[in-house]
Amino acid sequence: GFLYAGTGYGGSCFPKDVSALSKTAQSHGRDLKILDAVEAVNQAQKTVLIEKIIKRFGNDLTGHSFALWGLAFKPNTDDMREAPSRFIIAELVKRSAQIVAHDPVAMTEAQHALELDFQTKPDELKRVSLVKTPEDALAGASALIIVTEWKAFRSPDFDHLKQAMQNPIIFDGRNLYEPQSMTELGFEYYGIGRHN
User: Fold this and answer.
1) What is the mean pLDDT of the chain?
2) What is the DSSP letter of 74?
């Protein structure tokens, strides 16, 4: 299940396979435009959430803390290779945001990946905290960002979310929730590819 609307694919195999197929085709004088398009769309998908967040909060995110649910590139793995979360965290942190993130499985791998990503920017790494539960990430959050579609994130206590967060705003990179239901529950809700 790679081709769902969302924040893009990652992992160790699919990105490499698409890239390798494209290079093989080129070496045989074939230009597989579909593969180039797949790669281009994947990169674009990773920027969609960032663009929505910037449109809502502005480019300078100083003073904003974002709860981030999901670090692994897909559920039921701790694989952080090319995970969209890494791109999203880097983009938000360079705009001076604080990130408080949780993943049910990938916390250790995420710590290693982020240390690698920010090895030349230790001050930016200080703005990223990894916490033990999804609820721990919410305290005082300007918004919740959902990056990986873990089952544990599918039916949270929405009343608790609203009480814990500074603003009841959700950027849902995996379209886990129904937009109309979220509006009825009092959330400002942004999904992917849903005209919102």
Assistant:
1) 87
2) S
Summarised one tens digit per residue, pLDDT across range 62-115 is 999 999 999 999 999 999 998 999 999 999 999 999 999 999 999 999 999 999
Q: Is the pLDDT of residue 4 over 60?
A: no
Q: Parallel, antiparallel, or unpaired for β 98-102 and 65-69?
A: parallel
> In the chain, what are the domains?
14-190 (3.40.50.720)
pLDDT value for 16: 65
- 169 belongs to the catalytic site: no
Provide the residue count of the chain. Answer: 196
Which pLDDT value is given to residue 46? Answer: 77
Catalytic residue chosen out of the listed positions 5, 13, 37, 116: 13
Helix axes 107-117, 84-93, angle to 10 degrees: 50
Residue 175 CB-half CA count within 13 A = 11
Task: Give 123: exposed, middle or buried? Use CB within 10 Å, 0-12, 13-18, 19+.
Answer: exposed
User: What is the b/e burial string over 136-167, where b = at least 16 CB atoms within 10 angstroms of the residue's CB?
Assistant: ebbeebbbbbbbbbbeebeebebeebeebbeb
